[in-house]
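User: Batch of two.

Assistant: Item 1 of 2:
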Amino acid sequence: MDSKHIRNFSIIAHIDHGKSTLADRMLEITGAVQARDMKAQLLDAMELERERGITIKAHSVTIYYDYQGERYELNLIDTPGHVDFNYEVEKSMQACEGAILLVDAAQGVEAQTVANAFLAIEANLVILPVLNKVDLAHARPDEIAEEIETSLAIESTDALHVSAKTGKGVKEVLDRIVERIPPPEGDPNDPLRALIFDAVYDEFRGVIVYLRIVDGRLRKRDKVKFMSTGTIFEAVDIGRFVPKMTSCDELEAGEVGYFVSNIKTLGDVRVGDTVAMAGSKSVEMLPGYREPQHMVFADFYPTNPGDYEVMRDALETLALTDSSLTFEAVTSDALGFGYRCGFLGLLHMEIIQQRLEREHDLDMIQTAPSVTYQVLMKTGEEILVHSPGTLPPPDQFQELREPIARVSLLMPAEYIGPVMQISTDHRGVFIRQEHLSASRVQLVYDIPLAEIMYDFYDKLKSATRGFGTLNYDISGFKSDKLVKLNILVNGKEVDALSSIVHHSRADVRGRAVLKKLRKEIPRHMFEVRLQAAVGSKVLARENIAALRKDVTAKCYGGDITRKRKLLEKQKAGKRRMRQVGNVDIPQKAFLAVLGGDEK
């Protein structure tokens, strides 16, 4: 198709503002899906997405639309709304010329609305503001349009009013996409240049690569080169998403599609790489993507040591479909061999854990997540520490620095007081306050990322009755009085339960963790001693009493010395058992370290 008749766009919004539902209505109106095949959130194919009702992966689809007697090819990319999947949104924007900024006409501008709009502005996309859910009784579209102009400086006087649920106004959205979003600039006669914006693994066809053709054209049986790895592959199959994968003979400049070439090695494909013809030498690489910034790390250990290789294969497969996941091999005295994985946030970590358990049938132990710390050694060298277990001894470094997040909190004006109190309690530093409208306020704080990880979001939702939202960006590292809190079980340090905390919180945090561990660790045949310590100083202690058998049950009457002899024998056995016995720590106990304050 002539590139003048192609439009590439993505839908961006906050969580639950109706991105996937709008995509459903577009598929219905253009006839891309028959009525019998239609279902809610059609593009959310992953089991976890349908179960949770959220979009985790960006999904692309090609639809055809007739406008003023001409046929247009619209390539739509539906993106996630959660802050943890911002990287998916950023990747999708590189394959587009425009974006629909969808805003809930009842809830208004939220934290991720602001974050995604700024990503689109940085990517130089044409932004079309659209107000969704105008059919709700408490919708206030005029007020929300004013909020968009105030907070984002985007002209929204002519913002379209739609209801993605009923289909009202969706045709007008399609018309405006054709009118306002520019066609792609690539020339089909230039040498081939294509951007890899995603990839999935299929056990029958190997790696399926998602491409946006920037220049030139790609035909079946063409031999192409992946420029960052230098590997050459033949295009066994190419096609479009309409919305199912459908083969075609050719993809031209501006089009979005897929590429299959029996690629078996996962390392051969890199998201953000440039694809060119095998013989061409003068092709310039496309900018690609910035590396994702991993701020949460957790260790995964297989419960069965024999599953170590299986876990590595599973993580490699997931890392291909999710380029923001990284992992490296680690060992632990308590848990054996495993992998340390880097995530963009806590929800991202939870999704990866569930996908490992469901899709790859792995039974594993996950340690409490930790953030990345920067350590200034006495030699002047700066190193990054991803887990408390790898922190050098205190006498070897000068400073321990923690990551600071610039947090934007959006909420109704009546909740300012409680939210300020929560932010201060979590060592937040006030930056500014902005009134987006008469009833909506944005607070900006600098808060240590470790404080946000544990229970900040839960407290924010409780204090604002569910109306508060947050978005954060890492602004840098800052030195503070941080200490390593060690958890000892029967005198042995369990590195997987250790954490780095502010010295003023070490005592309270240690007691809270021990109380939770006492509930989660089952009783053994010997007494289990739990301790929280900083260095050699023990801050708190809890005991888990031993299971005791009544050894004197068979003694009735007679001399007391016989009973004493049996009890002494039992005591000696318990003492010996405590020295050689292993304490079984269940998975729930490791996650107990994550819990909030004990009230």
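Item 2 of 2:
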Amino acid sequence: MFLHEINAGLDQIKGAGPVTCAALSRLGITTVKDLLRHYPRDWEDRSHEVPLSDFAHATVCTVAKVIAHDWVGFGAMRTLKVYIEDESSRGVLVCFNRPFLEKVLLVGKVYRVWGRFFYKYGDIQSTNFDIEELSDGGDKGLFGKILPIYRLSAGIAMATIRRLIKRALERYADSIEDEVPVDSIDRHDLFHKAQALKAIHFPSSVQEQQKAQKTLIYEELFYLEIMVGRRALERRGAGYAGSLTDGTLSPLQNRLKLRLPFELTPGQISAITEINRDMDAPYPMARLLQGDVGSGKTLVAFLAALKAIEQGGQAALLAPTELLARQHAENAALLLEPLGVRPAFLTGSVKSKGRAQLLEQLAAGSVDIVIGTHALFSRDLVYRDLRMVVVDEQHRFGVLQRQSIVDKGNNPDLLMMSATPIPRTLAFTVFGDLDVSVIKGLPAGRKPVITHLARQSNEAKVYDFVAAELAAGRQAYFVYPLIEDGEESDLKDAVSMARRLDEEVFAQYSTALIHSKLDEERKRLTMEAFLRGDVRVLVATSVVEVGVDLANASCMVIEHAERFGLSALHQLRGRVGRGSAQSYCFLMYSDSLTEEGKARLKVMLENNDGFVIAEEDLKLRGPGQIAGTEQSGYLKLSIADPVRDSVLLEQARADAFAILESDPGFLQPEYRCIDQVLRRVKPFQEVAL
């Protein structure tokens, strides 16, 4: 019997009455299988003695004698203090709201004591402790073992949930069969499922608990990767060995390469080679193109589009903002029109007459590549032969939006681009059924941006530095977390700071403001003025995080930098350093910022590698936010953590893909073993394309 087959209600467990069942349901526990899968969030090791003298290094677990009682405070604040002593030292149990312990902890008697102690007011104290009389032989079961710590809800006590899980294991565990292939169990030194369930809840040693945890983590990741692998096989066609071409540039791609005033970087060449191989394969390409800010991903996308156009098809490049789409369209006109390619630009702001004409041209095939925003997948838009879809800044689009534009063609090739580097561990999960290309390195002549941290109280020094750069003919960005002053009045906002910088700080230079609430035409005119150099200081929100490529901008000042995610900070920093001149980024933070907050910003100070920053951001923010999958519920696994368990993730992935290569039908309905896992990872099918 598999665990998912245990659908018995909780009322089958002795002691699970209606009140207890109602409390457990608030934790999502309604059946015995739910109860057994309610894994501990932590464990307390009470199997080894830790004397009072070692309180600073570990949780105390000792045998101590009560030597005195004392009371402090008055009235409702009157608190009992129990003085204890073991062979190493003396301590104090501070019994907040537990005056009854005066009659439980009797002077002269010996007790087992477990607790977290600290030094305060000249004593070794604890306010969080458990006690058990030594002479009762440990009937409470609180000592001499490793105790599981569970998530609780109102109406359910820790002792109750421990007791119910223990009874459920006694009744059902021995009949539970393995849900992972036996050779994987042997190869990775895992427990069999029944043993793992027992050991995860009530381990006899730390080593046993760790092995049980490893087993269940592997199991969850294995089935996650099985789902990923099945999607990859469905897309590629089972048994296909890959493209037979070498991925060399096509004639039209070569013509663009020869027109460039610079050489492609090794990273760009490697990426376009991989893309060309995919496009020559008999199944649609599904590839994620990663590259740090300024690495040249857009040029690679144009080269890929040329291959589709050369084969007689059309290409579409989807961007999240009109600002970015317009810049891509301008670059396409500059690079592709001389080759005879017919580009077009389409956003929601294109007027009805021009829009109708463009739709006719797309349907007739008179447009080779269309670049735009959400308008590219509107219902009335029809392509003659859409062969290639490029999604820029893919994390800014929902899954259904990406699918909507793919559905406009007949299984077109898909290239998703991200300037927010996705760590390897997350790529294995969120984009595990995609092939991944990484553009490493920056174009020749680029210098790393020098980053400085500065308190808000030192703003004058930052402004003086920027003024010197402006005097040298450069331009600068100032970015703020708010558009206008709101409830968070302690924060600077873009509107008021634009006025101050224009009138007081940089009065001799032209200043402009851009943010998301401005209409598209005003944003366009402002950006054009900045790109021409008519505007020297651009005040903005994070709307400039993508889509601004100006070689003359040498300063990026981000005020209240602690309010931005690390990846967003890295993207903003990437707006400068796009020319040959040295560029600078100032991260200004609140004077009251905590040490933890400063340490977080130090990641930016010490790293220019976007992948390193992304790994740190993943640890701090979690995978859902970075992958843009929060709303899907994805990655809410029971026990696995793709970041922490990256080694097991790679092992599970290798095993899962190997099994699917030999048995593509694995995990079809008749094979499904753990519906809990499958139910949790089901949103993945809506996340990755």
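Confidence is low (pLDDT under 50) at residues 238-242, 624-635, 669-689.
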